[in-house]
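Most newcomers find our protein records easier to grasp once they have seen one. There is nothing in a record beyond a sequence line and a structure line. Getting from the letters to the tokens is the skill we practise here. An example says more than a description, so a record of this kind follows:
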Amino acid sequence: ELYDIDSDPSEEHDLASEHHDVVRRLAATYEQWWESVQPDLINEDVDGPSENPFKTAFWKQFGPRPTLDVSYGKHPKQRLYFWKASSATAENPAPLLFFIHGGGWSAGNRLSGLSQNLQLALEAGISVASIEYRFVDEAKGVEPPVKVPLTDAARALQFVRSKKAAWHLDTNRIVAAGGSAGACTSLWLAFHDEMADPISDDPIARESTRLTAVAVSGAQTTLDPKQMKEWTPNSHYGGHAFGIPTIASEGDRRSGRFTRFLESRESLLPWIQEYSPYALVTADDPPVYMLYNNKPALGHEAKDPTHSANFGIKLKERLDAVQVPCELVYPDAPNVQHPNLSDAVINFLVP
């Protein structure tokens, strides 16, 4: 994936197909860097000073070094970074921004898309946890594949809650945020019924999965191909979430997979109803903030159908119907109170 961060800070428009030479050059540079720094990033203790020049240079460029780098599960991808707000103490626990990266559940890491929100949250006295998770191609027999990243996010949230005392967290104030697939995951967490198991032998599983609010950008609000096609006719996203394969010989691999996704809808409907955020909306859901960088045009093709504001319009209609507060922001949108995601997160969490 390739993004123009200046004009597209939410990383919603993938330019990789337009700049193959740039992608190849950056990919080679990245691989060289990652090979040199990876041994020191895995299981690192980020509390103390680092003597690794690559690691030091990376954090100097990215932003504040995390307080902790910890595992929330046994798989290497089940890790999170935690930044503790400087104001957080046992007597004054901090609210939490729980960040889930995008990448179609197939790419990205716990730093993807985070930098623009991290510093502002910390300055506002908000601690931050940013998670990695297993991708759909790492599901290894789990059906549907999207269950893996979504339930990883739920487990990570429970794990963070279990650290309430040690990390000085106010777990009554947690906002989930993310872009694209991370946004879809955040909405799924927000709308899903409580997943805590109060009688589990596992203390982490007894922790709550409920949220104070959710703030997302470029969200896919449904995983129902029929709804996507009706809202945005050139939709092509979502088949991979349910294991619909691409066929190498297809002229247009994405549209071919989406056609098979649409044809398989009836058999997939129980899964769609379980993992599509739109299908899970109820009146007791937390407030929602959604940001898109394009104007909605229901029933019309979109330049970027995967991140179309049509997703936001239809979810807002659904939330309005059950009186769940929702602020929808896009260019020239009415009634905008918080023009960017960081403002919304701070408003939700800081009195």
Observations:
- The beta strands are 68-71, 79-83, 94-100, 127-131, 169-179, 213-217, 288-291, 326-329.
- Residues 137 and 215 are 27 Å apart (CA to CA).
- Confidence is low (pLDDT under 50) at residues 39-50.
